[in-house]
């Protein structure tokens, strides 16, 4: 097992390098870089993207009418623009900037945000509690409900219970997370009906004044609606995955043999079927957690006014804050790859008969 883990760890290097190289290359062709953003703001032109779709004549820059290459540079001295380029490192060729960036990231030096005057690490740590809350609790709730429900549906396949729950699950899966979040706000957060849960934030304004029990209660009071909204789609997918996995195992010959030997239904289900059927469910844990952690957080955070990694990534992309974009991409890409290895270790933990040493990576 040690050799397999070592091979997987070594495979992380070219994979992560490829991810960073592709994304860095793509940014070289995207208009509206950080220099253009700053120049547009200095000229009072608002967002630099307003000029991208305008008439090309509006891009004619400088006192002499020449195009300096930046949409917001009208009337600014060339020396000032060159100083900005040196400060942000854009006076160097792209391959040199990429090599320097990767060398810093290998040493876990992610630099400082262009526009926030704070290091990328501190910025991520500041936003992390919101995303951890959404990702962790949504995943735990999805597994706590979906696995027992999926097993029950598999055992009672074709029954009225299975039919009705399948209908509810399909409806839940079809509802977009943001629409469900708005519905929860309207019903339970001071919309047209009840004022039961708070409208925004992760904690109350008087958080520091509360007792330990009060802080725990206030925390769960605030996260109830966001967690419900972010877990609905994962709950539906995981339930059907669990049911289909157990149905596939229940129909196999070893189950029929075990029942013929007189074992009880519970003994067969949890003594033999469970271990085999849970493999595919466990394999889906990393992708489900990462998906909730990074994917759906932006809309949920925006609706519930939560300042987490989703909003941070969106704002960094709009502002072309490259240290935040690439720093978080490198860190979270590394985490995702390591979680993939953890998933394989969970396979072995559930079923020690699996031997990855005999397989090629």
From TrEMBL:
Cited CDD domains: TM_PBP2
Keywords: Cell inner membrane, Cell membrane, Membrane, Transmembrane, Transmembrane helix, Transport
Domain ABC transmembrane type-1: start-end pairs: 128-347
UniProt cross-references to InterPro entries, sorted A to Z: MetI-like, MetI-like_sf
Keyword Transmembrane helix: yes
Spans traversing the lipid bilayer: 9-30, 130-151, 163-189, 219-242, 279-304, 324-350
Gene Ontology CC entries for this record: plasma membrane
Bilayer topology: Multi-pass membrane protein
Origin: domain of life: Bacteria
Keyword Transmembrane: yes
SUPFAM superfamilies, per database record: MetI-like
Compartments where found: Cell inner membrane; Cell membrane
Short name of any one Pfam family annotated for the protein: BPD_transp_1
GO biological process, alphabetically ordered: microcin transport; transmembrane transport
Similarity annotation: Belongs to the binding-protein-dependent transport system permease family.
Designated name of the protein: Microcin C ABC transporter permease YejB
């Amino acid at each position: 097992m040690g050799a397999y883990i070592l091979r997987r760890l070594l495979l992380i290097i070219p994979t992560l390098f490829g991810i960073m190289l592709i994304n860095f290359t793509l940014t070289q062709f995207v208009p509206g870089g950080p220099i253009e953003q700053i120049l547009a703001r200095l000229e009072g032109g608002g967002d630099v993207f307003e000029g991208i779709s305008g008439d090309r004549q509006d891009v004619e820059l400088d006192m002499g009418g020449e195009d300096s290459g930046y949409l917001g540079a009208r009337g600014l001295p060339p020396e000032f623009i060159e100083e900005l380029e040196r400060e942000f490192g854009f006076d160097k060729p792209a391959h040199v900037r990429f090599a320097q960036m990767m060398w810093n990231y290998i040493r876990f030096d992610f630099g400082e945000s262009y526009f926030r005057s704070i290091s990328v690490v501190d910025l991520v740590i500041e936003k992390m509690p919101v995303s951890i809350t959404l990702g962790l609790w949504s995943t735990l709730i999805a597994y706590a409900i979906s696995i027992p429900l999926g097993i029950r549906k598999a055992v009672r396949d074709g029954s009225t219970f299975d039919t009705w729950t399948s209908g509810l699950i399909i409806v839940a899966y079809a509802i977009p997370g943001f629409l469900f979040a708005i519905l929860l706000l309207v019903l339970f957060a001071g919309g047209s009906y009840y004022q039961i849960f708070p409208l925004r934030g992760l904690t109350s304004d008087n958080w520091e004044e509360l007792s330990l029990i009060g802080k725990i209660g206030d925390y769960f009071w605030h996260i109830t609606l966001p967690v419900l909204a972010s877990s609905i789609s994962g709950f539906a997918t995981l339930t059907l995955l669990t049911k289909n996995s157990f149905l596939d195992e229940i129909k196999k010959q070893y189950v029929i043999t075990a029942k013929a030997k007189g074992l009880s239904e519970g003994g067969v289900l949890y003594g033999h079927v469970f271990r085999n059927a849970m493999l595919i469910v466990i394999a889906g844990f990393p992708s489900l957690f990462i998906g909730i952690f990074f994917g759906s957080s932006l809309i949920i955070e925006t609706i519930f006014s939560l300042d987490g990694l989703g909003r941070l990534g969106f704002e960094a992309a709009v502002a072309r804050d490259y240290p935040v974009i690439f720093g978080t991409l490198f860190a979270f890409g590394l985490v995702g790859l390591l979680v993939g290895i953890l998933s394989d270790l969970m396979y072995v933990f559930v079923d020690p008969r699996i031997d990855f040493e005999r397989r090629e990576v």
